[in-house]
Design brief:
Shape: globular
Largest sheet: 7 strands, parallel
């Protein structure tokens, strides 16, 4: 059957967290750039953020604050600082099911692309006889690892390391995943495998053909690599406004970086939902200072209690730290223009939690990584970065948390952090080899999204598939 030329009508329904919403909205832009009718379904506050950075059609539903006990205007995980409120965000998004279903049934699309947390989308897509594509912000490598553990469970009551069973590479993970994580994610993956396919914010060359084949062979399911999504943002203005508005002026940030030597600055950021205890931040600060290297350190905005003094709110920093490092370093409290920072030649290494958004942005910029996973898929991503692709070094984190909000007596000591920083920024053969490989993957990332590249071809093939499905559907 010949594919008709009429544009597709596609709805995108991202989860209300930056790591899910930003890349899926970027991918929606990919489809829109091919002339298809794209609508993002979200809530009013999130729509304001999207409209500033994405020129896309947005349809909103009022967020049910009162039903779950959240303040007005709190509609995204990026603005909550504890597990209780993150659960309330999830509960509120689940209450949107009825309004979204009514809208989609009244104005059915040709395809719906929904976050895998919305497992109820499976019933809706089947009812309307439309293909459903699933997005969860993970790498295919991580999804393969999770599927291997589902199919070949490891009976191990300790919190020790383990080897991923039935896997293309011999991969040892530093810590067992928490049972709470598996209890949440495994059923969601099972429902996701009923979909038409996964959309992956990555390019095949980074995940590896071996994992594409492994995934299809073990699951019988299709995954479409369409990334890196961050490369859709071409201009400085696009990159600066991606996600939220930076708390620091972009010009100020870039001017500071312009004054530094190439590959001399350590960029430190652990995403929007990773809140280290003060003791751990203190160890990190001591290590950064001892390394002697320049740095940009992004930390979550410290809310503090109203009755706390400014000094008490800043107890996570050694006394006099900012004064001593005024020329050498910069601390950004809140949102930072990460894509712009990583793309600057002065940045020589990235200390990261291995969240997939951050990981693929660093790869796209050719920046080697110092890996410090904390929760969800991050321990799997670490091994893809360090062991499989050789573009980073490990701090040696061994505590796999259920979420990014916790208190812990277990600390990664300052000497381990300093050692990892020096391995990349002090120079030497190992650092040179890692930097060379990182630059090679940077080139591959950019080639992937250009005409004739792997992600560009995948998008064309997926669009053709969706058109065939639309045109073969019986007319009512």
């Amino acid at each position: 059957m010949d594919v008709e030329e009429g544009p597709l009508k596609i709805y995108f329904v991202p989860y209300l967290a930056p790591g899910h919403m930003i890349p899926l909205s970027d991918i929606a832009l990919y489809f829109a750039s091919r002339g298809h009718h794209v609508t993002i379904i979200t809530t009013p506050s999130n729509a304001q953020t999207l409209r500033k950075s994405h020129n896309l059609q947005v349809h909103t539903f009022e967020f049910p604050y009162q039903e779950v006990g959240l303040p007005d205007g709190v509609e995204n995980l990026s603005v909550v600082t504890n597990l209780e409120n993150s659960i309330r965000i999830y509960q509120a998004t689940m209450l949107l099911r009825g309004p979204i279903e009514n809208f989609v049934e009244q104005y059915p699309p040709d395809c719906i692309v929904a976050d895998f947390l919305y497992s109820w989308m499976d019933d809706l897509a089947n009812k309307l006889r439309i293909p459903r594509l699933v997005f969860n912000g993970f790498s295919l490598f991580a999804i393969c690892a999770m599927e291997s553990l589902k199919a070949h469970p490891i009976i191990n009551d300790s919190a020790g390391s383990f080897v991923i069973p039935n896997f293309p590479h011999h991969i040892t993970i530093n810590s067992m995943p928490p049972m709470e994580f598996k209890r949440v994610v495994d059923p969601l993956l099972t429902v996701a495998l009923k979909s038409y396919g996964f959309i992956i914010n990555n390019f095949v060359e980074l995940d590896g053909e071996e994992y594409v084949h492994h995934y299809e062979k073990t699951t019988g399911h299709k995954a479409w690599h369409l990334g890196p999504a961050s490369l859709i943002c071409r201009t400085v203005e696009d990159q600066a406004e991606r996600g939220q508005k930076s708390v620091l002026g972009v010009h100020e940030c870039l001017s500071w970086l312009n004054s530094k030597r190439d590959n001399s600055v350590l960029y430190i950021c652990f995403g929007t939902i990773c809140f280290f205890p003060d003791k751990q931040l203190y160890e990190m600060a001591c290590a950064i200072e001892a390394s002697g290297h320049g740095f940009i350190w992004v930390v979550p905005e410290k809310k503090g209690k109203d009755d706390e003094s400014e000094e008490e709110k800043e107890k996570w920093l050694p006394k006099g730290f900012e004064e001593r490092n005024r020329e050498k370093g910069m601390i950004i409290r809140g949102w930072a223009p990460q894509v712009l920072i990583l793309g600057h030649p002065a940045v020589g290494a990235f200390l990261t939690h291995c969240g997939w958004n951050s990981t693929v942005e660093a790869v796209s910029a050719g920046v080697p990584m110092i890996t410090w996973p904390v929760h969800t898929d991050q321990f799997y991503n670490e091994k893809l970065i360090t062991q499989v692709r050789g573009i980073g070094v490990e701090v040696g984190a061994e505590e796999w948390r259920f979420s990014g909000y916790w208190e812990s007596e277990e600390l990664v000591a300052r000497d381990r952090i300093e050692k990892a920083v020096r391995r990349l920024l002090d120079g030497g053969d190992e650092a040179d080899d890692i930097r060379r490989r990182a630059q090679e993957f940077r080139k591959k990332a950019r080639q992937a999204v250009q005409e004739g590249g792997s992600s560009h071809k995948n998008l064309t093939a997926l669009i053709d598939d969706l058109k065939r499905l639309r045109d073969s559907k019986p007319r009512d």
